[in-house]
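As a warm-up, study this chain.
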Amino acid sequence: VPELELTNTQFGLLTGFFFIVFYSVMGLFLGSLADRVNRTRLIAAGLALWSLLTAISGAARGFWSLALPRMLIGVGESIMTPTAMSLLADRFPPSRLGFASGFYYMGVPIGTGVSLLIVGYLGPALGWRNCFYLLGALGIVLSLVMLFVKETPRRHVAEAETPVTTPDFRTIVRTLVFALRNCPALGLTIAGGVALHFVIGAGTFDQLWYVQERGFERAEIARMTGWVGMAGGVLGTLFGGAGSDWFMRHTGRGRPLFLFWIMLLLAPVNIAYRLVDPDSLWFWVGVFAGFFQLGAFYGPTFSTVQELVPPQIRGTLVGFYILMLNFIGLGVGVSVGGFVIDRFAAAGVAEPYTWGLVTFTALSLLAIPLFLLAGRRFDRDRDHIARLLAARG
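Now compare it with the structure written out below.
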């Protein structure tokens, strides 16, 4: 947004640190709330808050007037995933949880793609402020619709032979800490997700890279990557979810091992396309591969972490996972990414965006060995933590 005169560092802070701190930290507390209250009503409240603050963002006149609503938008948005994942785990059997999680996360590529299409099509016609107002109004309507969606019975409560009491926050946190300490596969899966999110965070600067260093016109590349992103992301989420379920059934190994193979095969493409000519076929193969890999990530990992903890803390665990992914992964990728790009530019590097993005792509490859180890340990650690928790009562 040229009229706001933001630096790369300020842009990174707005899309990264300021939003992520509130989104991630509040996700842990609201995930715990999802383990104790009506989940569909909680989603409706979060959507209403997000929508109101999105509309307010459209009136921003500078850095701080945009930063303040961005912080609070994170609070509303942090309700959604922990609550939705908890609902899905009660609706689907463990053998289908990868697909269910992946299907839910189709919202990420679809939302990303639609946002780029809005930039490409509606932005020039309506202006960015009116786009924010429109999205806010639409969200308010959807939050009202959500009030009429019925809650899903919690499976562990419905199947219990004796009445199950709702755990308090302290008990939930103690159980989470116990699981993290005694289940290496859980920690390895979380660490792998964090590593992958380094490049996802730095990818915030992709649109600036396309325009400033690859010669695309802003609206044109937003439209093109919007369509490619939706196609690659949707196919990735379906493949990652259903494929990881199939992989687990037929190999007996954990879903993170499925992600290991995907990342290993796509690693050369994800680096090479940053360096090739934008008219090359490999450039667009790389753009597609990036969205595909992002989509394939969600189903396998979110189903894995939920299977490694007891059902009464699933919402809290998902909130904690999101805290790690966003606060460390995206936070480093976006905030440090902007700083690194500014430093490359100050040092006279010819293509600072290119080399900043290549740097963070390389860092994200740390996820490959982490997912390998998590997948190999999954069955053993799942059984081990179940026995320990049963012994604790």
